[in-house]
């Protein structure tokens, strides 16, 4: 990934199927909340290629910090008449799967201006050559629509802004709760002031729904990213 990292940075991951059978693929990462991957799974026709867009979310870049983020591309031959992709991965046997692992590298433009694409065919093949039973046709590229990619980037930005907003509201509610508890302890429990504070505390309960909404949005974002 080539910086600066103050905005979403997109890198392409190219997957190629050199065999004469359809192949199912799935992309996993050790940091699902930091990346949007589209498509993160699918089927590659014989001799075809698929471009997977990996979108890194903005963060504070530290050149002295070594990246520990990794990606894994998991593949298996597609069974005939596929109807449920999840069932394919659940029923696949370990000896029918192949994993290709990639490590993320962060570079600033002045260090490497040409670090844009990751070619999965160079570090490791998609399929084990021992399982190939036919000639390798020539590959052709299938890329994502530019409009779809922009929509995904905008959706990632919108979700990130929602989370930041809800986080600020949660922090405000927590500080307000601490302040109310301090005031309550300084007054008598039966005084009108203490009663008024308890009423205010009860009225703030609906605001806690915002915090719960933040949890659900975080869960949705994890699902959306990978």
Automatic annotation (TrEMBL):
Q: GO MF terms on file? A: FFAT motif binding
Give the subcellular location: Cell junction, Tight junction; Cell membrane; Endoplasmic reticulum membrane
Coiled-coil features, chain-numbered ranges: 149-176
Span-the-membrane segments of this chain are 205-225
Q: Please, which domain of life does this record's source organism belong to?
A: Eukaryota
Keyword check for Nucleus: no
Alphabetically sorted, this entry's keywords are: Acetylation, Cell junction, Cell membrane, Coiled coil, Disulfide bond, Endoplasmic reticulum, Membrane, Phosphoprotein, Tight junction, Transmembrane, Transmembrane helix
Biological process, per Gene Ontology:
neuron projection development
Name the membrane topology term: Single-pass type IV membrane protein
Q: Which GO terms describe its cellular component?
A: bicellular tight junction; endoplasmic reticulum membrane; plasma membrane
Domain MSP, residue spans? 1-107
Q: Name one Pfam family in it.
A: Motile_Sperm
Role, per record: Endoplasmic reticulum (ER)-anchored protein that mediates the formation of contact sites between the ER and endosomes via interaction with FFAT motif-containing proteins such as STARD3 or WDR44. STARD3-VAPA interaction enables cholesterol transfer from the ER to endosomes. Via interaction with WDR44 participates in neosynthesized protein export. In addition, recruited to the plasma membrane through OSBPL3 binding. The OSBPL3-VAPA complex stimulates RRAS signaling which in turn attenuates integrin beta-1 (ITGB1) activation at the cell surface. With OSBPL3, may regulate ER morphology.
Its family? Belongs to the VAMP-associated protein (VAP) (TC 9.B.17) family.
Q: What protein is this chain from?
A: Vesicle-associated membrane protein-associated protein A
